[in-house]
Amino acid sequence: MKIALPVNDNNINTEICISFGRTPYFLIYDTGTKEALFIDNSAAASQGGAGIKAAQIIADNNAEVLLTPRCGENAAEVLISAKIKMYKTSSNSAIENITDFINGKLLPLEETHAGFHHTGK
Amino acid sequence: MKIAVLSGKGGTGKTLVSINLACAAKASIYIDCDVEEPNGHLFFNPSNIKEEKVEIKIPYADNNLCTGCRRCVDFCKFNALAYINGKLKIFDEICHSCGGCVMMCPANAISEREKAVGKIQEGVSGNVTVNTGELNPGEASGIPIIKKLLKDNRKHRVGLTFIDCPPGSSCSVMEIVKDADYCVLVAEPTLYGAHNLNMVYELAELYKKPCGVILNKYQEGDNPSEYFCMQKGIEIVGRIPFNKELGLMSSNAKIAFRESEKYRVFFSALFHSLIREVRHETTVNP
Fold this sequence. Notes:
The structure holds two protein chains of two kinds. By secondary structure, chain A is α/β, with parallel strands linked by helices.
């Protein structure tokens, strides 16, 4: 199973990025092979709809689970259509969250927020 | 001649300035572009109202025709489309109605439908033609309505137009500024007021539009906005006193120019000094 996380750096000791849509990288971790893959988030520089594009990238990489501190409602709509389950991160470290998820310690992310960029668009 | 009336925040006096100046002209057009909360019509109470719906085009996909090539998804700079589990997903409120996805689709899988986002009204109040735009609650962007108001205004060949802008310096205000001949910046006498004045001043500068400031709620003592104008060398077109009388008239939806001789004289003088400044600026820096 592949797990996706928004992260600040492209190494395994990275911290989680607070923004899902505009994170610089995604970490895709394969629980089967224990391989970590880092991909650039091309949605980060979007004029708008970054969350939608970021969710598309996660889906295109065949992730089944997303670990994130928060998620916008448009991104969530894409993720739900792609049947990707969302869990809320519980600490800053990417690797800790992966371990916690595997041990069943993370809770599903149930709240999504309205976009931050709607004002005066 | 189109004069845009701007301010960095709400409640500064854009409507007070634009309605009174519109009344002071022999004949003028007033356009309320503050489409999220238009209130100029409450003062003018116009008659002979003509109303028109404003619609935008939103794409919709026929998933039976879609081949999944994703050209539309890649084309959209606003990411209004996603392709998930063999189906196109379209986010209406992100879409800017450019029609690019329709053109990019090689399978004719995307068509457009009309979606009403608000309305515009035109009526008459004395010497003023009153135009109002109103955005439907819940819609993300008032720009299609503002564009329609400005486009319709081009049909009026004569006269002076005062455009009552939304507060701030966001894209909806930019849409108006880029179309205007002159910008009137309304400012309050506080530090926060000077900060907001700077925002709209920078916007006018960005589009190289001539501008002048009207200092509203003017009173004795320090005036950071006035200081800002002197520092930057911005023309101060007028000063409107801070008094209860004007405040009361505003809260009772009365137009000061039409209510009392005192304010008729005051706003006539303000109007003439503005027109002098506009003529000067638009001749010197056309």
